[in-house]
Amino acid sequence: MNEKSNRLPSLNALRAFEVTSRHLSFKSAARELGVTQSAVAQLVRGLERELGVKLFLRLPKQLALTDTGRVYGSDIRRAFQLIGDATLAIKPQQFSLTISTTPTFAAKWLLPRLASFTAAHPEFELRILASESLASFQTDGVDIAVRQGQPPFGPGLKAELLFEQHVVAVCNPALRHAAADAHASENLEGLTLLRDTHNLWPQFIETGLHLTPSSDVKGLRFNHTSLAIDAAIAGQGIALASDFLVEADIAAGRLVRAFSASVRGRHDFHVVVPREPRHPGPTDIVRDWLLAQRTGN
């Protein structure tokens, strides 16, 4: 047998034939392959010429496989399946996990660190579900959650402490002296307090600054702490946030501590996973990575 007679047909032609043999329609095959109907028909005709056999009967309103086409189509379909299986076997396995957290935690802590994780674990596809609403491990397909509060968080879940909540007041460096003067004079009415849905300012003023909260102090309200932090960076006032959420902004000089006081909050941050996760190995890897970040490892 010479080299020419041993040559395999074009893979494009074989694929066009295999898809057409399933649909018995050039139009439907073209839609699946993302090419034109005429291109599919031309590939199939070229394959028939090369093989020297008829694979389809061209009926008035449809196609029909010849006996030869039926047998050949079945064999070609198995061949493509073998190619697909072999390719899948050598490709790195992909894992898709969903992490549920608040928008502020995602924006100010998690997202800046994700690049290091994805570089170390390219086989992972992480989906970040950022919402103030409590996501469900079952109905929302959540694999890992970062939740605030005190465990237990529910039956069938296990929680590990990520960060204790220590609330600090931060502002643009340009407002530092105004904040210090207001504290020294025990009059905060000249300051603008940036509030979020947690509304921790009364507790901070009373417990941290040892002053009496007043309704006369000016303020702006935001529905996310991250927005209050961004407003503080822009010099619009003083925001309250958990200390670890503003570490990077303080280190970069975008923020400073407005007061030296720190108030211990009741809503610590925990990494929460199901006791029986859907993907045990990958879930452990992501959970361990999250916990390692608290010490900077």
Automatic annotation (TrEMBL):
CDD domains: PBP2_GcdR_TrpI_HvrB_AmpR_like. GO terms for biological process: DNA-templated transcription. The keyword Transcription applies. It comes from the Bacteria. GO terms for molecular function: DNA-binding transcription factor activity; sequence-specific DNA binding. Gene3D superfamilies: Periplasmic binding protein-like II (3.40.190.10), Winged helix-like DNA-binding domain superfamily/Winged helix DNA-binding domain (1.10.10.10). Residues 9-66 form the HTH lysR-type domain. This is LysR family transcriptional regulator. Pfam families: HTH_1, LysR_substrate. Belongs to the LysR transcriptional regulatory family. The lineage of its organism: Bacteria, Pseudomonadati, Pseudomonadota, Alphaproteobacteria, Hyphomicrobiales. Keywords: DNA-binding, Transcription, Transcription regulation.
